[in-house]
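To whoever is covering the structure queue this week,

Two jobs came back overnight. Logging them here so there's a record in the thread.

Job A:
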Amino acid sequence: MKKHDIGLIGLAVMGQNLVLNMSDHDFSVAVYNRTFAKTQEFIRDRAAGRDIVGAESLHELVTHLERPRRVMLMIKSGQPVDLTIEALLPLLDAGDVIIDGGNSFFQDTIRRHRYLAEKGIHYIGAGVSGGEIGARRGPSIMPGGAQPAWETVRPILQGIAAKVDGDVPCCDWMGTDGAGHYVKMVHNGIEYGFMQLIAESYAVMKHILQLSYPKMASVFKEWDQGKLNSYLVEITADILAYRDADGSPLVGNILDAAGQKGTGRWTSESALLLGIPLTLISEAVFARALSALKEERLQAAPFFDAPEAEEIKDKGSLQTDLGNALYLAEIISYAQGFMLFREAAAEYNWSLNYASIANIWRDGCIIRSALLKHIRDAFSHDPDLKNLLLAPFFQQVAMENIASLRRVVTAAVNAGVPVPALSSALAFFDGYRAGVLPANLIQAQRDFFGSHTYERIDKPRGEFFHTNWTGEGGDVTASTYTA
């Protein structure tokens, strides 16, 4: 029996397109789907004439594979992954590799990596971004986990990945245990932020600039030709130009209640646990949650009128400001994401390569943009860079565009147009650039009611003090604080 290079489980859209991509790059593939009829249909239809074989059982799938066996899972995250692993275990030998290409929670990946390592099986959590088109033509892939298995899977994963700068694959090793899925999680969080920022820009265009749908599509298309070049800006132009069957703009007929699968929420939860101010992405997650309250919003709307906004005398200037504001806000979203990476690397003992992460996001993935080349260059120049806003290029961009962000947020607030992500970007920037914040009052309050102590500006960091504010307290203090 001919042995195949890799097995893939799960023939939904992403799985099928990855298999065809592998076949395009001369890798032979054995496939399995829980519903055998779907496997048969795939082999008969899209996979016809290719070196792709269907299996009716997991046992048959494994018998088709070259050793060490490589089995990729493209199935729903959570319990289905655990159940599939348990079903595969009796069929695999030491040195074989399981690759989870779904959106698994990174802590689950850490757990599975340790569990399988005890049994001699290599486990790789590989984030895959790019949607069905990316899967078919070249995604961005973020593998991490069992380091000894990297060379075993590298030819296939890098072979099918998107390429930049000629032939540099948008796939590189992220690190041990859950690093790959963590990077993909943060990628998705940044994606939430970008989508919300673009949606808010659309709202400003529609309700304040009062642009027609064709004009909005034209503006986004123009933006995509310049510094705002990105996949999400590109498809937004196409979406705004698309017509429904009756000739009206299709997007205007879509219910304004956004769904989510949870990866953005995971990103915000991780930031809270690690103490990183991931404000923009978190606002994007909450904005989706608020949008889901459609019936409540309809009930509230008649009671609360929008403010009477001042007339915008120079709409052309505001439109220019809006592009500049979106540009700076996207940079802040990236900056917060990489802040989270740095803290996670320290917490989980990962050696994340930030320049490499930026580079593999440059093509194939949903958040690909022209900005990523500048981010890669910033971290290549200074791998220990604490924040993107401290790099010379981004310092200059911030100085040039912050006034535009202020004007756009002001105009939106005055008009009663909600822009939580743009507002959050501005608030984060002002907080980050501030040498002094009112947190001294918060710390005084904590010491007043809970004896939590404080540090002094006239003393070295690390020395803690307590004041008996009322004269009725004592000298006993609670634990110190983490700032």
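Job B:
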Amino acid sequence: MIIECDRCYARYRYDEGRFEGRSSKKVRCTKCLAVFEIYNTPAFEAQPPLPTDADLAAPDWKPGEDTGRSKDTTTAKRRAVAAGDRRRNASELKLPLDSKLSLAVIAGPDSGKIFPIEKPRVVIGRQGADVNVEDPEISRAHAAVEVAGDRVTLVDLGSTNGTYIGEEQVSEAALENQAEFTVGGTTLMLIVTSPR
């Protein structure tokens, strides 16, 4: 089977026998070093279906009653659906034709540096990322900036110290021109410029 990293989208061939009967397994991407979960599709199909709204409304079902499926499997299934949504969104990513984007470091060890955004998804990290920031508080793959035309989204990639806009920790947030965000001990600003 072919698996795909949900952070950098690197693809790998994976031997299904390594699941050892489990429905999911965590693996590490050799490119960005992110840990992500993969799913054994035949194992999911063999399990009973999740209850529908109609099942839950039926008088013979009681809250807390076993639905025949473990919480872990339900969570894994939801993650699989979310990962599929993320891959679907990746096909929508594209740089705008009428403006240029860049990230400026306005506070932190690399203050003053400007990184042009030259592809629709850039990963910000300490090492081996699209935007490498010399800050020991930043994870190797800390956050990503995803561009879909005029829409720019900041996505935390499961970083250790979190991604913040102001004082609020975010997992995903829209960014406007001159929006500031903090990764580790570094504050960056999105700059959108239009050619004259």
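Note for Job B: DSSP finds three helices and 15 strands in the chain.

Please reply-all if you pick these up so we don't duplicate work.
Q.
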